[in-house]
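Good morning C.,

I know you're traveling, so I'll keep this short. The sequence:
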Amino acid sequence: MSSLFPDYEYAVPRAPPPPLTARERAAQFGPQALSLPELWELLLGPARPRVRLAELTLADLATHTAAALRQRFGLTEREALRLKAVQELAQRWNHPSAEPPLRVTRPQDVAHYLLPRMRYLEQEEFRALLLNTKNGLLAEVTVSVGTLDLSVAHPREIFREAIRQSAAGVLLAHNHPSGDPQPSPEDIRLTQQLSAAGKLLGIEVVDHLVLGHGRWFSLREKGLL
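The tokens, ready to paste straight into the viewer:
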């Protein structure tokens, strides 16, 4: 006697495969397919939970010391130093300092050189690039570090190192943490004062660049120097 129910084959549901690790996803799809936390995991390894790494941005990496990274994101000393080493390597690859040396022929040269170094700074910094007679870079000097929106630069701080290194000219630059590179009346007045002081010393103030978020303003190019 045949059964009232025909025979059916029932598929046994299989457990879904485990998600790919960051290393496996990078090998299969390339690092460009990884999220930022997955890239951090690829660098540091998945040995322990890394909830805080989801909050770590490239701006944090550029503006925090290794000790600050450890405290804020729960990293070990080795992990924090590894990330800072990656940042330093990226900066050197993008802006090699050995060959060829920076030669200032137009404001864009300085903007492309300084923007990656200063765009993520949370405080206003005033820097001077010391130049030789052929407008080649002799040294980069941080003159002052201000509060969120104020930097104080005195002529003696700027020209002391220029005199010591026998610089023929200086190119001034500072950042606006707000991101807007439009110079303030104080920026213009300070530039004119420094230019006058440089003439007395025989050291030309070549230009003054104000740097924002991916943008810049040349006071000489706009006829304000």
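Safe travels,
E.
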